[in-house]
Amino acid sequence: MIRSQTSFLLLTALVTGMLGACSHPQNDAQTPAAHETPKYAAVARGRIDIEAGLLPLDASVSGVVAHVKVHTGDRVKRGEVLAILHTDQAQAAVTVARGTLQQAQAQARLIAAKRKAARHQAGLLAKAAAAGADSGQHAAAAAEHVTELDAQAASAQAAVTVAQGHLQQAERVLQLHTIRAPRDAQIVDVATQPGQTVSPQSGPLFHLLPDAPRIVVAELDSTFADRVHAGMQAEIVLDDDSAQSLGRAHVIEVGQVYETARLDGDSPQRGHARTVRCLLRFDHAVARRIGQRVLVRFLKGTGPSTHG
Predict the structure, then answer these.
(1) Shared fold status for 5-51+213-299 and 56-85+178-210
(2) In this structure, which topology does domain 56-85+178-210 adopt according to CATH?
(3) Residue 114: in which H helix or E strand, if any?
(4) What is the 3-state secondary structure (H, E, C) of 22-74?
(5) What does the pLDDT look like over 117-133, one tens digit per residue?
(6) Using alpha carbons only, what angle is made at residue 231 by residues 228 and 235, rounded to the nearest 5 degrees?
(7) What is the CATH number of domain 5-51+213-299?
(8) Which range among 156-170, 255-269, 270-284 shows the weakest confidence by mean pLDDT?
(9) pLDDT tens digit string along 89-117?
């Protein structure tokens, strides 16, 4: 059965030491290093990325784009305006909601005033009835009227609460017509323009590259997944003819789910090879483009391990 290219790279690394030993048999006695075991536990293909990847930014509400404030390559701060949708309808909704609230508040104040007067009148009639100056019928009617006004006051206050909620909702929708950067980042793609109709379902309007340390996402062949563990050190080199070193990184996570290989583009087994995702963090920050291909050489005997 044909082995995947990733497995081939690993085997090449593992036998390098043995080939060196075989090429100079006459020096075996004088060169103990020729018998050293290979220093790589595994080799895998990977790519430069950031944790959680690029940040797509969609429209939160439907509308027509009025202004786009940024361009590809711009650096933005958290809260900075990226685009604004036309706000005519949203502003009108806020105006209506505010008027409804004011009306409800006025009605509540009117009922409160009536209730205050009714309570005062009911108190006077109750005293008159107690003194024998009234049969008590007027006092009873006044007390009943107060009870009715109490219910109306509660209803009016509930109407005020509902109107406040509608106003807050309308103001929030208006705010969502302004699209802001959720964090410090660089704009890597602008996919909208003034006049475009957008919605939450229309796809990202912007792609942001958050200001975050670079990591490596490696595709570890399933055959060697158990040889790699959190804390293990690895050498990172460019996956090209230069094989330029990018320094060392350490494993921060080894996936628990098998996936289909995506980076082994030249392998005839690409659609069938099973890999485990492995994340590594550079020991020292590197400034490399997202998506750049690398080779990850996991070093034996480094970092904490639970393996025997």
Answers:
(1) no
(2) OB fold (Dihydrolipoamide Acetyltransferase, E2P) (2.40.50)
(3) helix 88-130
(4) HHCHHHCCCCHHHHCCCCEEEEEEEEEEECCCCEEECCCCCEEEEEECCCCCC
(5) 999 998 988 888 888 77
(6) 70
(7) 2.40.30.170
(8) 255-269
(9) 999 999 999 999 999 999 999 999 999 99
